[in-house]
Give the backbone structure.
Amino acid sequence: MQSSKRRSRFPVHILVFLAPAVLLYTLFMVFPLINSLRLSFYDIGPKNQQSFAGLQNYVKLFTNENFAPFFWRALRNNFVFFAIHMLVQNSIALLLAGLLADGGRARNFFRTVIFLPTVLSVVIIGFIWQLILNPLWGVAESMLEAVGLGSWFGPWLGKPETALITVSLISVWQFVGIPMILFYAALIGIPDELMEAARVDGATGWDVFWRIKFPLILPTVGIVAVLTFVGNFNAFDLIYTMKGANAGPDFSTDIMGTFFYRTFFGQQLQLGNPAMGATVAAMMFLIILTGVLLYMFLWARRVQTYDM
Amino acid sequence: MKSSFPYRARTSLGRAIPLVILTLYAMLALFPIVMILMNSFKAKKAIFGAPFAFPTPETFSLIGYQTVTDRAAFSTYFLNSVIVTFTALILTLLIGAMAAFALAEYDFRGNTLTAIYLSIGIMIPIRLGTVGILRLMVSLKLVNTLTGLILIYTAQALPLTIFILSQFMRQVPKDLKDAARIDGASEYQIFGMVLPLVRPALGAIGIFTMIPIWNDLWFPLIIAPSSKTATVTLGVQQFLGQFVSDWNAVLSSLTLAMVPILLLYILFSKQMIRSITAGAIK
C-alpha cells in the first residue's frame, strides 16, 4: 500500500473509508470461499496434509457409491423444493399482492399479519409445524375434520412420499410474505392512469391484471425467481430442525444444504470429510452461480423495464 | 349513472371475495403461532384435551416456563444473541456506511471495480465458504467465540448494506457538502454530516440485517456450538431436541424464543414494510 500511494497519490481518506469493509469482507467472505473452492481439488489427510487431487473429488461425488446416490437425490429433491416454492409460494404471493394492491379496508393489517412468519426463526417455525402436524396432539387432524377432510390427514412428515412436499409447503407458508411484499411494492408503483384508461375501454379486473399490471411487474417476477432459487439451494435450517442431519425418513427430505453438512461433518458412523464437503459446496456454488447468471443475461437483459 | 341491481351485486361480491381470501390466509398465517402461545400457558391435560381453547383459570399453568428456566440457560442464550446481533449490526452500519460514502462521494481509479467486487457477496451466500471459514476460525482461535460469529455476520451483511447505502448517499445534495468543504471541514467531518441524512435508510437496513443474524442456526451450530456461546436459535434447537416429549417445556421455550422478535416486529412492522415498498417504487 505504501508503494501504490507513492505512485498514484491515492487520497488517504478514501483508503480509510474503504479499508475496513474491504478487509473484513475479503478476509471472512471472499478468502474462505476461494479457499473452499481450492480445497475441492485437494485431498486432505488426517493430519491436515493437503495434496493436489485434480478432479478426483468431483469424480468421486458423481460416481462413488458412498456419495453419488446421495448427491443426485439431494439435487433432485432440491429442484422439487424449488419447484414447489416457484409454483405455490410465488403464485400465492402474486394473488395476495394483487388483492392487497387493489386497496380496501384493513390492507395494512393483512400485510403485517401475512408477513409476520418471515421474521421468525426457521427453527421455531419448524418446531411449531411439527407440533401442529403431530397426530398425538391432533390439531391439524381435528381442523381437517371440521371442514370434512378428516380422511386426508396422515403422518405426512413421517412418510417418504409426502415428507418433502410437506416440508416445502411449511417453508412456503413461512416465506410467502417476502415475494408478496415485493410484488405488492411493484404493483402499487404502477400509475393509476394506465389502469383507468383500460377500464374506460371496458376491460375487466382480470384483464387489467394480466394484460397491463403483470407485464409491468415482470422485472420483479425475475428478481423473485432468482431470490427464490438462491434461497432454496442454500436452505438447511428447516430440514435440519424438522428431520435432523439425516433428512429422514430414508433421506427423502435431503437437499444440498443437509447433504453438505453431513459430508463435511460426518454422521453417526461416518467421519466428516472436509475435502468432499468443499466439493459439495463448490457444486452448490456452481448451481447458484448458474442461476444468477441465467437471470442476469437471459432474463434481466430481455425484460423491458418501464420507467413509471 | 345507470345503477341496476345486478351491477351492484357484482361489485359488492367483487369486494367481498378479496376480503374473504385475505382473511382466510391471514388466519392460516396466524393460527399456528397463536396455538403455541395459547397452549404454553395451559396444563398438560388441557393442552391435549382442548387445544383450541384459551387458557382459563382452571387450565392455566406455568409449569413449562418453570422447566425451561430451571433446565435451559436461556438468559445466557439471550445475552449471547443480543451481543452478537447488536455488535454485528453496529459494525455493519458503521463500516458499511464508510465504504458506501467513499464509493458514492469520490471519483477515484478502481471505484467501479471496488463496487463490483463488494457486490458479488449480495448474491453468493456466505455459507458456501463454510469449509474455509471454519479453517480460518480454527487458525485465528476464534472457534466457540462470539467474536467469530460477529465477524462472519458483519462480512455477510456488508455487500447489501454498501450497495443500498451508496445509492442513498448519492442523493445527498452536493451543495451541502461543498459548502462544508469551503468552511474548511475535513472529509471525515463531511462523512459525519452525511450520516444523519441517510438515517431512514440506516434504520431499514438495520432491521433487515438484524433478523437473519438473530435467527441464524448454521454458523452458531458450526463455529460456536459450545453451551457458553450458544445463541437463542441454537439453544432453543438443542433444548427442544432434548425435551421433545415434555410438551409444556417445548411450548414455553418456543414462546420465549418468539416473543422478543414478535415485539420488535409489532413495534417496527410499519417502517419495515414501508422501507421495502418505498425502495421498490423509487
Q: What stands out?
A: Chain B has a mean pLDDT of 88.
